[in-house]
């Protein structure tokens, strides 16, 4: 009896391993740097199986005096339905910073979570602040997303080549304050940001190559033809939203869901570039009655026009629709300009169906205030096949020449603007202060190192910093 049972279990296991050979071999991405902070909270929070460390404890905030940074709890009696990250926030009345230890140089994903709390201590409609990450201005004159009733997550891709990453919060004036509910600082996979991309000006293609000194802000991340993909379901804890809102017109387009397996190839798009859930759905144009429809599918994305920003448009393709190879040919347009002519997914995926491919295009921001992506039949499309497909779109804003993603001022200018400083004696006072604070910092470091032995888990400390004088 027992013997039979064991055989049965072995048989079941064998069956399982035969039916999922690939899903078993996939190792999830494990980032070297992975700092998750539940700001303003005394308790760690586990959200979607990820542990956000509490930052509210005197031991963990050696540089944070209570009159400068405050932990605030949501007092709205009807809250509690959304994530635990939004139960608390850390509020800054003076310039303050979080510092993260960076063990691996390279691109990092930085996510800042904002949600206006209902508090008797602070009127969140009075928040207004700048945020500087490393040497980049990522938010200026920001109000914490008051206009959106839901939590707001801002995501940036920042190249870090030092041992620490500072995230600074600066109220715009002394009567205002800054806040943040949660912070993520995570090493990005090497292939997430491209080394070069096609620069599609209105007339010419150029090789675009200027990433090392640039920060990116993710402005749109869209799962075309499919449902929302949540951090729980994404390989890099991202959120992909459905495309309906951005579709100019759905006439002539068809949604597709693919139940099979997505075949990731080495050298092609990795699972971190786009998860199965993104490549398994698409919108497409299909020939019918033996003729190629004369239509494009167009998606329209509002973007900040002007300001000297460029945008990186990443288009995700996967031929989950064709019945055989070499049947799908189509054109891809960005802002009405031909970006890829006669895209042949069979050839770019090494003759494999359901294998993902992505293309990066860099465009200028135009005064129109929108960025358009279209797909449509090409002169090689076939009258009995598919005439265009798109599975996902990401749009990322590139920092301008001042190193800013929000406004014309550089980080130096923003940091200098803190209104607390006055007087003629500044250089002298500054020098004295600098020496003083250096010695204090040094002394605290020594004390801290002694103290920190018991809780080395702590990845972060919040500190005030003296606004530059
Ligand atoms: C806080 O919550 C209470 C109860 O829901 C509500 O009456 C009040 O208007 C809220 N205040 C703010 C500032 O949202
Ligand atoms: C994850 O994806 C699966 C199917 O793709 C879905 O059923 C599930 O609800 C998703 N979970 C979350 C938390 O989004
Ligand atoms: C295809 O042809 C059939 C019959 O001739 C017609 O009913 C149908 O509307 C046509 N479909 C399209 C998309 O033109
Ligand atoms: C598709 O869009 C391109 C670029 O805007 C345009 O040249 C072409 O005429 C469009 N095709 C159709 C059928 O609208
Ligand atoms: C499609 O157009 C390109 C140029 O735009 C041309 O070189 C190519 O021969 C055309 N292909 C067909 C099948 O007409």
TrEMBL record:
Leader peptide range in chain numbering: 1-25
Keyword Kinase attached: yes
Domain Malectin-like: 37-397
InterPro entries: ANXUR1/2-like, Malectin-like_Carb-bd_dom
One of the record's GO cellular component terms: membrane
Coiled-coil stretches noted in the UniProt entry, renumbered to this chain: none
Membrane topology listed for this record: Single-pass type I membrane protein
Transmembrane segments: 424-442
Pfam families associated with the record: Malectin_like
Subcellular location: Membrane
GO terms of molecular function: ATP binding; protein serine/threonine kinase activity; transmembrane receptor protein tyrosine kinase activity
Keywords for the protein's UniProt record, in alphabetical order: ATP-binding, Glycoprotein, Kinase, Membrane, Nucleotide-binding, Serine/threonine-protein kinase, Signal, Transferase, Transmembrane, Transmembrane helix
Name listed for the protein in its UniProt record: Malectin-like carbohydrate-binding domain containing protein
Organism annotation: Trema orientale (Charcoal tree)
């Amino acid at each position: 009896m027992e013997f039979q049972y064991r055989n049965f279990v072995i048989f079941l296991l064998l069956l399982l391993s035969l039916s999922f050979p690939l899903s078993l071999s996939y190792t999830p991405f494990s980032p070297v740097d992975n700092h998750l902070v539940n700001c303003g909270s005394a308790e760690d929070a586990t959200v979607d199986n990820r542990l956000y460390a509490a930052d509210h404890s005197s031991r963990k905030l050696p540089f944070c005096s209570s009159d400068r940074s405050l932990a605030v709890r949501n007092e709205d009696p009807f809250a509690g339905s959304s994530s635990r990250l939004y139960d608390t926030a850390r509020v800054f009345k003076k310039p303050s910073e979080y510092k993260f230890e960076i063990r691996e140089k390279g691109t990092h994903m930085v996510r800042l979570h904002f949600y206006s709390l209902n508090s008797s201590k602070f009127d969140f409609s009075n928040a207004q602040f700048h945020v500087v990450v490393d040497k980049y201005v990522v938010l200026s004159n920001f109000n914490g997303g008051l206009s959106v009733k839901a939590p707001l997550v801002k995501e940036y891709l920042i190249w870090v080549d030092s041992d620490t990453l500072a995230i600074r919060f600066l109220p715009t004036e002394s009567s205002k304050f800054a806040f943040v509910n949660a912070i993520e600082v995570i090493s990005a996979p090497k292939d997430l940001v491209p080394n070069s991309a096609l620069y599609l000006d209105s007339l010419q293609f150029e090789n675009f190559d200027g990433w090392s000194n640039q920060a990116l802000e993710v402005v749109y991340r869209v799962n075309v033809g499919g449902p929302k993909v949540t951090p729980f379901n994404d390989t890099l804890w991202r959120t992909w939203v459905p495309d309906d809102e951005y579709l100019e017109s759905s006439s002539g387009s068809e949604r597709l869901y693919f139940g099979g397996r997505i075949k990731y190839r080495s050298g092609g798009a990795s699972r971190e570039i786009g998860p199965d859930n993104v490549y398994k759905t698409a919108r497409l144009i299909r020939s019918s009655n033996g003729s190629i429809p004369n239509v494009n599918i167009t998606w329209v994305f509002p973007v900040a026009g002007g300001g000297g920003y460029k945008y990186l448009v990443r288009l995700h393709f996967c031929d989950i629709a064709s019945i055989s190879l070499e049947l799908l040919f189509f054109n891809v347009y960005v802002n009405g300009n031909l970006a890829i002519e006669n895209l042949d997914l069979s050839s770019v995926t090494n003759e494999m169906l359901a294998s993902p491919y992505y293309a990066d295009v860099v465009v200028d921001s135009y005064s129109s205030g929108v960025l358009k992506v279209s797909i449509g039949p090409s002169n090689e499309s076939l009258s009995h096949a598919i005439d265009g497909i798109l599975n996902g779109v990401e749009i990322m804003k590139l920092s301008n020449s001042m190193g800013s993603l929000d406004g014309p001022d550089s980080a130096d200018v923003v940091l200098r603007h803190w209104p607390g400083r006055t007087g003629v004696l500044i250089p002298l006072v500054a020098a004295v202060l600098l020496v003083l604070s250096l010695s204090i910092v040094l002394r605290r470091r020594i004390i801290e190192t002694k103290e920190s032995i018991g809780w080395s888990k702590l990845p972060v400390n919040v500190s005030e910093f003296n606004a530059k004088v």
